[in-house]
Amino acid sequence: MAQAASKTCEVCVSAPGSHYCIDCEEYYCENCKFVHDRQKLSRNHQFQKASDCIPEGKSRCSEHKEELSLICNTCNAQICPSCVTGKHNGHTFSKIVDVIAQLGGDNETKMRDKTNEANQNIKKIEESLNVFDNSVESVIKAINDEGNKVKRMVDKSVAQMIALVKGQSKKEKDKLMNMLSDAKSVLDDGQTLDKKRKELDKTRQDGSLVQKINNLKEEIDKLHINSLPEFPNITFSRKSVAEDDIRQLIGTYSIR
């Protein structure tokens, strides 16, 4: 029987049991393992290093005192070979070592499948992160491009509006300058006539003075002062624009 504390070969009982046969549940030394591997009945047995396992003692049937080496599939109970012909007669059986190997193989397969699935998920997540990062950069670039486009449009519109204001205001200012020039010309003519009037006041009063005064009167009557029109005025009406209106001009984004 294999003992957890003794790691002595259970065949020759002399050399260190450095190998443990999972199928036989026994320790083997190097030489005995070599012989065991060459025997037809045990050449497919599985070994592991004795240092890697601490096997428990073999359980025995309480009724027949034999090793519980089988599992009754019908009752789901551990039994010995003698139980097969007893109360478990007609049931289906499996070797415990086969069940352990099957369960171990199933667990290994499941773990391998789950590990592969986890690795695939990690790969997909990493790829998705890379794609998402690239998409974020593309969206940021598109927002900047659209923002610059809107800025250029605003700058162009501002420049055009200022040019229109300057052009139209120049026309109105030219009209005012012409009116000012005409008014100054009328004032100069009036001042000249007024000098004539003062000179006539100093002239000897006789028949010729009357004619001169009449002539001056005609010139004064011809002096025309234009009536003033309504002067131009310019104002600016601001349009209410919210930040959301600007964002709508640039565009929208969505994350799904």
The largest β sheet comes out as:
3 strands, antiparallel
Helix content: 40-55%
Give me the strand/helix succession. Answer: EEHEEEEHHH
**N- and C-termini, Cα separation:** 65 Å
**Dominant shape:** rod-shaped
Strand content: 5-15%
Based on CA atoms alone, the radius of gyration comes out at 59 Å
Q: On the 0-100 scale, what is the average pLDDT? A: 89
Provide the spatial order of strands within the biggest beta sheet.
2-1-3
> What is the count of β-strands?
6
Structural class: mainly alpha
Number of helices: 4
Which parts are unreliable, with pLDDT below 50 for 5 consecutive residues or more?
1-5
What are the SSEs and their pairings?
Elements: E1 19-21, E2 26-28, H1 30-38, E3 47-49, E4 70-72, E5 77-79, E6 93-95, H2 96-201, H3 207-222, H4 243-250
Antiparallel strand pairs: 1-2, 1-3, 4-5, 4-6
Helix pairs in contact: 2-3
Plain-language structure description:
It is a single chain. This protein is mainly alpha-helical and 256 residues long. 54% of the residues lie in helices and 7% in strands. The strands form two sheets. It has a three-stranded antiparallel β-sheet with strand order 2-1-3. Helix 2 packs antiparallel against helix 3. The model is unreliable at 1-5 (pLDDT under 50).
